[in-house]
């Protein structure tokens, strides 16, 4: 297969309005995510989009040329353009991969694709230690990971997490305070693969951690489409189906 | 458990604008569906709603008192009020059952809850014979059904059906012209159970057929909520979770 | 529906060979489980079986009249009779419910039905506090439970748990030492429903705890068959299928 | 990733005891399957095993070096060695891919891994035309296939198929006589991926058909393990888990 073209959306608000966060991610979390992927031999183009420019950057043409889209948002979900959300959701159904990160659980794209109204969950901010347990051994997304790894401190997310039963549950996380969370989940919509990964609160340098970088990379390979854009034959009229029995070459 | 309160939404357009269809369902398909349920010992109230009055009938109070909502729509999906759609989707997440019938696959409520943009599928109108095969033996929805039953003529639906992988695949249908279709599927969103059932094109007396009436009835029992309205504790703040360890009585 | 006939298998070894355990369960864990179910208005017969008498008690006739079978075993899995295991597995495929408890994860019946060789998991014995989180809101098995409850001390089980992806993940447990575990899972085999529940190590009075008793009761209602014994028509020969289109009454 | 080492088990009975079948597969179906894979750039070794030599050929060493095992059996399931079955099932749990073909649905390896007693289904032999419909668009196994293709004649399989709910339903087949069948299904056991594909009765030249050859090839890429042999840390003792937080390199 060819190179993997990636687009990364980051709200890019906290980094510019909070000195401490800006010090952790001086070029924004989107750049940190891009850096985590950039040394992968399979990487193609990396397009960066933020709230300020997403309506122009995430054009139909851009999405048509994107294999995997990463999404990080938090405070400004409502300001994301509805046309962009529609375009993204349709492209996912046509085969584009989507990796939703941390508070992206409440983004328009994630809730629209999952059919949850809220993506609700329990949360706390108290520097809890987080242990991320692999539950789906042998899955491409966990390739190279140990059975469990530690995130020294992150925002605590906890059940009940308002998602449909995931197709595959990849990670379950343990938090010092007593919560558990389905921190890695896969879903499929149409021909498109979706991966949600919890860790990555803006106040911690989590996207620099080796295990997290590896997960971002593995997810890119897992979520990439295997086929060119899927266009469905919806039939219609009253003719019986034409069965080509021909392999597309 | 107590009685089951049901609400039935039917677009109620075809029956009034096409003589042949009006002759099959003189009081509308909603009445035929209500009649199929009315002799069940567990039945409580049955509320009937149509496109004309759905904004007032399907009020929050009505939905709060509804255990299972049936939904039939076809030509007028776009005219369904978005506020009603939001109310319905939220109530499903809180535990209300939803039974989506036939071309309801393209309704706003179904696509919003499933996260499909289109609910697309193949279709033909040619009086094909349809064989409905049970694939999920022992499921409450198939109780009392034979392994396979015939619908003498119906609109043909065919794969690919644009839905997420169902939680449970209940029926697969065979059509004379060569199509197959996942004609009975279950999904869960939040605390609410959703059942999609394909058969029931407006031009055929399908909602009078014994097997179909039994399915509508079984689906009501399966989809009813087991708990009072689910209200999720979203935590927040920075306190660790209060663990009551107390059974709610 | 009629009364629910239950059978309970307990190895019944620890209680008779360890004074402390015998003091907790003087009549055996099977009796404690029976007591948890006995005041349910829907309860029918309760048959008790132990390792010593299971070959005679769990006869074909007994299993044919059993709606839900509970299974607790630990040290003596290998001594369970293979004919009984076959009978149980076949009956589950025909519709009998099965509730597998604690170290029953390694029993012949559970591994045979799940297709795991081992049902392997991580474990520790150190009186860890266990928090049991509901993840499947609105499921019949969690009816009446709070979002989370505490088991003051139990054996620690942890991922990776060698099971296929459950049909429904009902509970995830948190342990003080850092483990997480999919402590409540449902599976279906043929027409039979299977529920695995983790808590219940022999050295703790867990089957006397209200939440656990409620779970045992809810599981009985959830796992009971909806249809009489399922007998599959396997066709054969070369005749096309006879489609009765007749509702079984 | 490196080359893919494949092993193919074929009962190899019909081809030698029925002239017509021998004329279709003069070197046996295992050779036809090998030929379908042999021109794939990723192919490594191909080991061929038959009922006569499977106890020696399918040794532990061979299985340890196998990435994907294909399995075709029909009349002689019972004669397959139980030690080989155990080795195969354990290796699948450790990550080896398994592709089960046609009447392999009743093989010991398939029933043991799925937990079905029988793998039962309906069947007829009457040269029915079979239409294979893709239901899982964008899945690697359907890459390059049209939405539907025709198998001119095959043995008819029909529901109810005695399998657990598949992780992914890939194909549904339509048969002239009225049956439908879940003809392509995926399952996961431990770290191993399993694909069942129906078409391929011994009396038809189906393994020479382009679409079927493509499916065999795609399945090889999909089922290959991503990680070296998975060895699970089962913990034990009473120490809390050692969390390396180290990426395995």
Give the SSE layout:
4 copies of one chain form a homotetramer.
Chain A: E1 4-10, H1 14-17, H2 19-24, H3 29-38, E2 43-50, H4 54-57, H5 60-64, E3 68-72, H6 82-94, E4 97-101, H7 108-114, E5 122-134, E6 148-158, E7 168-175, E8 180-189, E9 192-197, H8 210-223
Parallel strand pairs in A: 1-2, 1-3, 3-4, 4-9
Antiparallel strand pairs in A: 5-6, 5-7, 7-8, 8-9
Helix pairs in contact in A: 6-7
Order of helices and strands of chain A: EHHHEHHEHEHEEEEEH
Record field, number of beta strands of chain A? 9
**Approximate helicity band of chain A:** 25-40%
Largest interface: pair, residues per side: A-B, 42 and 42 residues
Q: Which structural class matches the secondary elements of chain A?
A: alpha/beta
The best one-word shape of chain A is: globular
Catalogue the unreliable spans of chain A. Answer: 244-249
The total of helices of chain A stands at 8
Mean pLDDT of chain A: 91
Provide the gyration radius of chain A in Å: 18 Å
């Amino acid at each position: 297969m060819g190179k993997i073209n990636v687009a990364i959306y980051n709200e890019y608000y906290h980094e510019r309005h909070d000195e401490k966060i800006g010090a952790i991610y001086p070029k924004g979390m989107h750049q940190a995510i891009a850096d985590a992927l950039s040394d992968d031999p399979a990487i193609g183009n990396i397009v960066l989009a933020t709230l300020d420019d997403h309506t122009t950057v995430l054009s139909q043409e851009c999405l048509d040329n994107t294999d995997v889209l990463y999404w990080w948002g938090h405070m400004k979900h409502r300001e994301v353009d509805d046309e962009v959300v529609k375009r993204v959701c349709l492209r996912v159904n046509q085969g584009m991969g989507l990796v939703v990160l941390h508070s992206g659980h409440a983004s328009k794209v994630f809730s629209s694709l999952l059919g949850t109204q809220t993506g609700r969950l329990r949360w706390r901010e108290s520097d809890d230690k987080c242990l991320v347990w692999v539950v789906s051994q042998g899955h491409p997304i966990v390739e190279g990971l140990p059975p469990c790894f530690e995130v020294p401190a992150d925002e605590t997310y906890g059940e009940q997490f308002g998602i449909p039963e995931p197709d595959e549950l990849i990670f379950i996380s343990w938090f010092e305070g007593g919560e558990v969370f389905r921190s890695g989940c896969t879903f499929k919509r149409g021909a498109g693969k979706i991966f949600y990964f919890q860790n990555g609160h803006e106040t911690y340098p989590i996207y620099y951690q080796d295990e997290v970088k590896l997960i971002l990379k593995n997810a890119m390979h897992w979520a990439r489409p295997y086929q060119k854009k899927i266009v469905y034959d919806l039939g219609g009229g009253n003719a019986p189906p034409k069965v080509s029995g021909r392999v597309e070459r």
